[in-house]
Amino acid sequence: MTKDLTSVESVHIMKDALNEIKTISPDFSPTKKQTVGNKPHILSLVLGTIFVVFLALFVTGFGYQPWWVKLSNLLCK
């Protein structure tokens, strides 16, 4: 026989667990959106993309493949 998660006992267990988490970490809130890390700056993304494109062109010797092949490859990843 499985217990229903909506039973009164289950709700009390979940509330106790949530209160215990809040005492351990007061900043925790399941309703508040949690952010991990920092948002990337648009300038670093643009400069990184330019660097990768020029590096790819340099390694291939600015050779046979046209620039649009490199750009399409970069956009597909």
Q: Care to describe what's here?
A:
The structure is a single chain. The chain has 77 residues and is mainly alpha-helical. The chain has helices at residues 8-24, 42-59, 67-76. It contains three helices and no strands. Helix 2 crosses helix 3. The model has no long low-confidence stretch (mean pLDDT 77).
Topology of helices and strands:
Elements: H1 8-24, H2 42-59, H3 67-76
Task: Give a nutshell description of this structure.
By secondary structure, the protein is mostly helical. Helices cover 58% and strands 0% of the residues. It has three helices and no strands.
Which sheet architecture does the biggest sheet show?
A: none
Alpha carbon gyration radius: 26 Å
Structural class: mainly alpha
Shape: elongated
Question: Mean of the pLDDT scores?
Answer: 77
Uncertain stretches of 5 or more adjacent residues: none
How far from one another are the termini? 49 Å
Report the count of strand segments: 0
Q: Helix share of residues?
A: 55-70%
SSE series:
HHH
Tally of DSSP helical segments:
3
Strand content: under 5%
Pick out its properties.
single chain; 77 residues; mainly alpha; 3 helices; 58% helix; 0% strand
